[in-house]
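We were asked to recover a plausible sequence for a given structure. The inputs and outputs are reproduced exactly as logged, with field labels preserved.

PROBLEM: sequence recovery
POSITIONS: 268
GIVEN STRUCTURE:
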């Protein structure tokens, strides 16, 4: 078979919902075997797995809290036990615990940093260790031996009042991603970030389920529609494929133009 990701194995964290779910399905459609990570809802992880199988794909579900190192290590063990290798790490999980800065507790700061930033650090490190072990001489190979996606956000660039823990985690991901991309490039491991704008998922239901809030949101999106998880998933499948083999250390903004300062557009 000539599928883009045939014979490859991918871990996707937070794949029981939203963007992670769409990425798991899209990678499976392209031939990858997928490890569907979830933290709380086994049923929803199973939904993802059913959709993967409906596409003719292979997968397993693995429970792990990405803010806990032990859980992450278990997820990697389970992956190797089941599929024997790893080619793609999609560090997708991200949470918001919002509050005004003056009231933000240290706990809600720490929870977001642990889940969004430290979780990605541990996942990327463990994946890279496996990639390097799988190939005798990575420096001498032509194509990449492993790919990492760090799920970021337009808030790795756009400041976000009321969400400073989240924005700090995504800003951190930007430099984390670029620094490991620089360090791992000689080992033929590609590391890129995806920074979505507004994508319709449970994380921002309070916005898209309210018509007034939706109107305000659409003013920030020159393309004038909210994004779909599939918009992100298709780009994710491409960037981990050999069609993107010369791309590393990049951030792909998938945002309908949200990064274009729409408030400066000449609407007159
Ligand atoms: P979502 O809430 O639908 O999905 C988040 C997923 O992470 C869920 O599957 C959840 O179970 C899982 N998760 C939460 N805590 C976890 C933990 N401790 N361990 C493991 N998994 C855990 O949200 P989404 O919109 O699909 O977000 C996915 C990623 O995209 C996040 O990193 C988010 O910051 C980013 N993002 C989303 C948007 C958007 O508009 N939806 C915009 C920019 C960035």
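RECOVERED SEQUENCE:
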């Amino acid at each position: 078979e000539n599928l883009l990701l045939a014979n490859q194995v991918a871990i996707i964290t937070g794949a029981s919902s939203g963007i992670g779910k769409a990425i798991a399905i899209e990678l499976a459609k392209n031939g990858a075997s997928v490890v569907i990570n979830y933290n709380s809802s086994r049923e929803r992880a199973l939904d993802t797995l059913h959709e993967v199988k409906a596409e003719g794909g292979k997968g397993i579900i693995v429970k792990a809290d990405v803010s806990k190192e032990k859980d992450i290590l278990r997820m990697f063990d389970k992956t190797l036990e089941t599929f024997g290798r790893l080619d793609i790490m999609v560090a997708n999980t991200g949470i918001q615990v919002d509050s005004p800065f003056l009231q933000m507790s240290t706990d809600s700061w720490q929870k977001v940093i642990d889940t969004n930033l430290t979780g990605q650090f541990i996942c990327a490190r463990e994946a890279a260790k496996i990639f390097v072990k799988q190939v005798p001489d990575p420096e001498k190979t032509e194509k990449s031996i492993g790919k990492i996606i760090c799920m970021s956000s337009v808030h790795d660039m756009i400041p976000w009042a009321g969400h400073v823990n989240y924005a700090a985690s995504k800003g951190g991901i930007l430099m984390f991603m670029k620094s490991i991309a620089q360090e791992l490039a000689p080992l033929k491991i590609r590391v890129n970030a995806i920074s979505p704008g507004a994508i319709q998922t449970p994380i921002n239901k309070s916005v898209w389920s309210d018509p007034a809030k939706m109107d305000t949101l659409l003013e920030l999106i020159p393309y004038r529609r909210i994004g779909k998880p599939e918009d992100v998933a298709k780009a994710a499948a491409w960037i981990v494929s050999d069609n993107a083999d010369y791309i590393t250390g990049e951030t792909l903004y998938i945002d309908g133009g949200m990064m274009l300062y729409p408030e400066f557009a000449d609407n007159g």
